[in-house]
Amino acid sequence: MIQMLHEHTYPVVQPHGPMLYADQEQLKLILRTMLGDGERAIIVDLRYTDLITSAGLGILFTLQKELQAEGGRMALVGPKPSVLTALRDWRLDQILSIYATMKEACDALGSTSS
Q1: Among 23, 28, 78, 83, who pairs with 47 as Cys (CB 3.0-4.6 Å)?
Q2: Checking DSSP bridges between strand 10-15 and strand 51-52, what pairing results, if any?
Q3: pTM for the full model?
């Protein structure tokens, strides 16, 4: 299940449970809709995600590239140890902005907005 919320004016995508191959189309549609709606700062809240597959990692990487091309940013929040390990194994921790808390992510996105 994937929920959409707002935190300090930022849209938040909140996947619950494992991010499997079957979830990738729903997640991709939600994120591309946000981009199409003009969102340029997006938070992906991973606090409720206990597993992420290579398809999920690929979606996060692609979204980051699309946002950067539009002058935007993405912040990942609170990945559990298994998800953080996957991000590190794929070296995505060197590309994606990862924060422990929602406040840290919102502050970081706000510090670069114009």
Answers
A1: 78
A2: unpaired
A3: 0.87
pLDDT of 98: 98
Secondary structure of the chain as H, E, C letters: CEEEEEECCEEEEEECCEECHHHHHHHHHHHHHHHHCCCCEEEEECCCCCEECHHHHHHHHHHHHHHHHCCCEEEEECCCHHHHHHHHHCCHHHCCEEECCHHHHHHHHHHCCC
Q: What is the pLDDT of residue 74?
A: 93
d(CA 60, CA 9): 21
The answer on pLDDT for 51 being more than 60 is yes
Amino acid in position 28? K
Q: What confidence score (pLDDT) does residue 7 get?
A: 65
